[in-house]
Amino acid sequence: MQNALRWALAPAVVVALALAIQGTSAQEMGMKIEIKTAITHAGFASKYDSLNEVTLHLHHVVNCLVGPDDKLFDKAAGNPCQGQGKGVLPEIKASMGTDQEYNVAWWLAHLGDEAIAMKNLAQAKAAAHIIEVQLTSMSKM
């Protein structure tokens, strides 16, 4: 009787585990796509020689990191991560809590926001470079 019950429940357990794994992978994949998009825009920002272009792409980075529900999100700048997820920070928080990775991403978002506010081309490009390097490191975890 116990063996029959085990065999009857085994497919249900396998299906439940497969769905749980699939959901986690989809969430992680969304976050990775958002991080990749943010890396791309940080790279653009670090290479341009116009303050307008640099700050536009820094806005894109910040928007990808914080998501549209955050006060740092600038709707007017556009959201290259639209449709990719809810933002890196909300997704890290939802899946892992406010761990070290969350706090690093939080600081990167604030670094980008501060660099935009400084209105200094060299400082904005330097901040973009720092953000690009750190996000690249995060993407390999």
Give a quick rundown of the structure.
This protein has 141 residues and is mostly helical.
Q: Which segments are poorly predicted (pLDDT under 50) over 5 or more consecutive residues?
A: 3-27
The class by helix and strand makeup works out as: mainly alpha
- Count of helices? 5
What is the C-alpha radius of gyration, as a whole number of Å?
Answer: 19 Å
H-E order: HHHHH
Fraction of residues in helices? over 70%
How much strand?
A: under 5%
User: Which geometry do the CA atoms define?
Assistant: globular
Count of the domains? 1
> On the 0-100 scale, what is the average pLDDT?
83
Distance N to C terminus: 46 Å
Quaternary organization? single chain
Total number of β-strand segments? Answer: 0
Largest sheet: none
Keywords: Signal
How would you characterize this protein structure?
This protein has one domain (2-139). The chain has five helices and no strands. By secondary structure, it is mostly helical. The chain is globular and about 35 Å long.
What are the key terms here?
mainly alpha, 5 helices, 77% helix, signal
Structural topology:
Elements: H1 2-47, H2 51-66, H3 88-96, H4 100-118, H5 121-139
